[in-house]
Amino acid sequence: MRTGATGIFPAFYAVRVPKDGSLVRNDGWTEQFVVRFLGSVQVPVHMGNDVLCAAMQKVQKKSLPSACVLEVSVKGVKMIGDQCFHFFQLKNISFCGCHPKHSRYFGFITKHPDQQRFACHVLMSDTTLHPLAESVRRAFQQFYKEHVGYSCPTEDIFIE
């Protein structure tokens, strides 16, 4: 949508979005946060507070923030704004958190679906973004319960 290019896209990495643009689960669990998107930068590894902080500092210097709404659900994180529309499935988010000293900054790291490349996406708000971090944590817990816990159990099951 951003470039206007058309072509084949692997369905495994995409999610069908209804025409109304909503990604509300059947039980309606979606949380919205009004934030400002500062931008994204490539990062060398998939996790770590030091990686988040370095990315936040880099993005803060080079971009003007654009207002957007961030929706968090068990399906993923969706950014909707005048300058951006992005959707990241939870399985492609490897790390997230608030800046340790300035909690009005929040970042999350995503893995490229095909390559060993990672990007950090940085957001800010006038108030603390700890509720956003907590919402993402709850989404991961729910996602784990619904998908990973059943498909990859960590307990040994013995059948006699």
Give the helices and strands, then pairings.
Blueprint: E1 31-43, H1 49-62, E2 66-73, E3 76-81, E4 85-89, E5 93-98, E6 105-111, E7 118-124, H2 130-151
Antiparallel strand pairs: 1-2, 1-7, 2-3, 3-4, 5-6, 6-7
GO molecular function, one term: MAP-kinase scaffold activity
Domain PID: 32-146
InterPro entries: JIP1_scaffold, PH-like_dom_sf, PTB/PI_dom
Verbal overview:
The chain has 160 residues and is α+β, with helices and mostly antiparallel strands. The protein has 2 helices and 7 strands. It has helices spanning 49-62, 130-151, and strands at residues 31-43, 66-73, 76-81, 85-89, 93-98, 105-111, 118-124. Mean pLDDT is 80; it is low at 20-26. Its main location: cytoplasm. This is Mitogen-activated protein kinase 8 interacting protein 1a. It comes from Xiphophorus couchianus (Monterrey platyfish). It is found in: Cytoplasm.
CATH class: Mainly Beta
As for the CATH topology, it is PH-domain like
Total number of strands: 7
Helix content: 10-25%
- CATH homologous superfamily caption: Pleckstrin-homology domain (PH domain)/Phosphotyrosine-binding domain (PTB)
Quaternary structure state of the chains depicted: single chain
Termini distance? Answer: 55 Å
Structural class: alpha+beta
Low-confidence stretches: 20-26
